[in-house]
Amino acid sequence: xxxxxxxxxxxxxxxxxxxxxxxxxxxxxxxxxxxxxxxxxxxxxxxxxxxxxxxxxxxxxxxxxxxxxxxxxxxxxxxxxxxxxxxxxxxxxxxxxxxxxxxxxxxxxxxxxxxxxxxxxxxxxxxxxxxxxxxxxxxxxxxxxxxxxxxxxxxxxxxxxxxxxxxxxxxxxxxxxxxxxxxxxxxxxxxxxxxxxxxxxxxxxxxxxxxxxxxxxxxxxxxxxxxxxxxxxxxxxxxxxxxxxxxxxxxxxxxxxxxxxxxxxxxxxxxxxxxxxxxxxxxxxxxxxxxxxxxxxxxxxxxxxxxxxxxxxxxxxxxxxxxxxxxxxxxxxxxxxxxxxxxxxxxxxxxxxxxxxxxxxxxxxxxxxxxxxxxxxxxxxxxxxxxxxxxxxxxxxxxxxxxxxxxxxxxxxxxxxxxxxxxxxxxxxxxxxxxxxxxxxxxxxxxxxxxxxxxxxxxxxxxxxxxxxxxxxxxxxxxxxxxxxxxxxxxxxxxxxxxxxxxxxxxxxxxxxxxxxxxxxxxxxxxxxxxxxxxxxxxxxxxxxxxxxxxxxxxxxxxxxxxxxxxxxxxxxxxxxxxxxxxxxxxxxxxxxxxxxxxx
Length: 600
Fold this sequence. Notes:
Strand order of the largest sheet: 20-19-17-18-16-15-21
Number of strands: 21
Helix content: 25-40%
Largest sheet: 7 strands, antiparallel
Number of helices: 15
Shape: elongated
Structural class: alpha+beta
Oligomer: single chain
């Protein structure tokens, strides 16, 4: 999701409501391109919002520029950089008198600060943050918009469009786009509807601050294919697209925002200050959309802080699990190939009974064979039908019989060995597939630690943990803890080690156990607390079992469930492997959006 002009408008409104009248208490430059500014709120704002101070984060990082409010703090260097010292000299203890977004929906926020200079005279300075990808910057100007300094210096050799250096006049580079807050139907028709490109692209390329996802949302609300050419729209479609464009503009003008994060499964995929109905905001999701869920936030700052923290965690865990995924995938492919080869050998070994029959019939009828015969046709007394038996002409009938009995014995031994080997390989495949699912579920480094532990104990990787330490010293990961709509505790194992602990240590015999039928997935236990469990709680626990399984993207997943006392673990079985012989089943959509996550 782009940090678009609408997000900036939402931030500007929140900053204006909260920070105007507040005093800058501390300024810290925590990174080369990041500031943490502590603001003590005005009495009115403190009374209205119930807090006395907050921290404003301004980051001009080229890969992830951000601006938001937070309660968190961050360590800063012992010696403050020059830009930080300059800001402290001029605006520390200054009062914020306005927070504005220039040019309609430009990705720029201006903080105007009133302060006293060395002579005690009242002065005004402006701190500007530009959120423009790799061109992002934090710029400090005087009353006449002359640049005093900036966190990044941009000389003419770097940019021919605009220099950002002390003494230069500050201005926003022109984008040749219109202001959406001031547009008219005629201008919209001229700028958008006359272009021979997809309608959503025509919208975001014509107006400042409109991101591709917002342009797609406008098309979705209008019921028009976003890829349809703008110039090909008929009168009714043109009217509809402009009307819904106007609805978005009206939300911005009135300051009516609904910040929310949109998740695809566990992964945060999008966020917006404007409701994204194309991702299900304000509607009942269909089975095919049930993997998406929405989390509304109380403020855009809360959204930004949470979204990027979760996104960063999700990405970091994915990166850290790459080596484990490769190990699991390689071992899985090797075992699948081995199983396929063993299956072929098993098919060949099934011919053993034919050779036994040949031997028995030769012992019975071999006397009728003549020397040098290459085959003999006899009546099979087992079936009553004639059968032709190939012979080695260099051997006697008894020797041919012995040859067939030897083949039978060898294939019988092979089959017995293969049955045991195939059982072991099948269990290894099942374990590796469940570990692959656990890697998809993992959200923390401690979750990966337990998976690494299982791989080491199973011989897939070398263990780097001292033998003196027990399992409890190795990891501190906990299962997911959900609360059902009726107040029942439901726990979900993140990996096979947790699955065993949940099933055989946490759950009592009378509690209920859930698992996706015949596919890898988590053990889910519903703790009854001795109470009668309503149908809704069963369905919610089943939905969790479906969601945390390989079938999470299916419309419906078949779930087995039974009381914990009927779940058994065979001696010597691999982690997470259990057996049961009587159970109930239900098919359910893996939708867990209504469930409350207590801890992860």
